[in-house]
Amino acid sequence: MKRILTLALVLIMALSLAACGTNKEAESLTVGQTLLKDFEERAEKEDVTTIAEGLVTNEIIQFMGGSMSVEPGFLTGFGEYEVTGFSEGAMFSPMIGTIPFVGYVFQLEEGVDADEFIANLKANADLRWNICTEAEEMVAGKKGDKVFFVMCPTAFEETAE
Questions:
Q1: 30 within 8 A of 137, measured Cβ to Cβ
Q2: Which of 21, 45, 70, 103 gets the most CB atoms within 10 Å of its CB?
Q3: 81 contacts 64 by C-beta, under 8 angstroms
Q4: Could you list the residue range(s) of the whole structural domain that residue 46 is in?
Q5: What is the pLDDT of residues 117-147, one digit of tens each?
Q6: CA dihedral sign, ordered 57, 65, 45, 125
């Protein structure tokens, strides 16, 4: 009986350690890279609005956020550059404007080259669009005819509990 109990306790401890172990890959990804990976997993099965709503609730996000549809034209973070070439777009961002974070998901119009679209976004984006703060990274990617773009901190500070 003692052997069975000991074996059960050892098994429970081993499972606990495995469950609490850290994921080295997840720890090494920045905020933008983590969100890009999430986008890539969602892009084939969700529309841009649903993707944006999901991204802003990713566990790496450390703020209360929201998402909204956007139309071609002047978008937050791009100054005087008019973003065009998409048929559907969604922005996701914090509810409080002091956090240097803004993200987009775009459904490209037919015939628009995704690589060129991304290059134009990067060339015209301003990491300091948010007057008092500055984003640390700009991350973009594509999956099929959908494009992901975010300007954000590389990490969020851990909050003490």
A1: yes
A2: 103
A3: no
A4: 28-152
A5: 999 999 999 999 988 889 999 999 999 999 9
A6: negative
How many distinct structural domains can be found in the chain?
A: 1
Distance CA(151)–CA(67), nearest Å, equals 15
Confidence of residue 10 (pLDDT cuts 50, 70, 90): very low
Tens-place pLDDT, residues 27-71 = 689 999 999 999 999 999 999 999 999 999 999 999 999 999 999
Residues 6+ apart with CB under 8 A from 143: 39, 40, 43, 44
Q: Which two tokens stand for residue 46?
A: 């969700």
**104 within a domain of the structure (yes/no):** yes
Whether residue 3 lies inside any domain: the answer is: no
The answer to whether residue 124 sits within a structural domain is: yes
pLDDT score recorded for residue 156: 87
Look at phi and psi of residue 123 and say left if phi exceeds 0, alpha if psi is from -120 to 50, else beta.
Answer: alpha
